[in-house]
Amino acid sequence: MAVKFDEIGYWSEIKLDIVSEYAAAYSRIMSKQSLIRGYYYIDAFAGGGIHISKRTQEFVLGSPLNALQIIPPFTGYYFIDLDGDKVGLLRELTADYENVVVDEGDCNIILSQKVLPSIRFDEYKRALCLLDPYGLDLDWSVLHTAGQSGVVEVFLNFPVMDMNRNVFWCCPENVDPAQIPRMNAFWGDESWIQAAYKRTDGLFGKIEEKMPNDVIAQAYRDRLRSAAGFAYVPEPIPMRNTKGAIVYYLFFASPNKTGAKIVGDIFKKYESMGME
Hints:
The chain is α/β, with parallel strands linked by helices.
């Protein structure tokens, strides 16, 4: 099996630490809830379970294997990826776990049709879901389904660098028509155009200018609350590259006030560490 391990940078390692720290707290809390009949860990872009650190060139456990080390354990685990080789490796690495399901395919379909419908409020089930797409590869319908369920908490990679490279230009008229459906699918509708651009009066008439990254991220935060239905969405933490440029924002969205408070504190702790 020829698996090419992803190399991850400093902030990607921080992301893994953030998710693991909260997942451990989440599991401790859920294990003490007598009414809960099952709580699940979902990774929709799971990869092969192992990465290589750019800093040390050593192997780093990915989100799936980190989750499996958490005590007390989750009731079950759903790991999904589109890459067949990575799925094969992950199946080998998790073969001894009877409560692990590894699926190969489009997570948008698998989550919407298989996984999320099985996590139901009336069955007293809960889930923590990591949505870490490689770019604009996530459909809004997944977030809407999770938000409307009232039982799913989500970590989300908001890929602003992909948006800046492939979608946003100085004015909306220059956006590549081929990119518009991708952005619509991720955002859920075309309201991203109003969020991403501002029209102002200039010397020669109306001028369209792109809004800063943080303004666009805040608009998406509002959508997670108003359109998807998550009750609590803390300020996202910006994740950067080695030059300090923001690559993406890590969001957390939850129906639970306690979870949002814990994650907000975790975000503040890691953000204060600064750049590498």
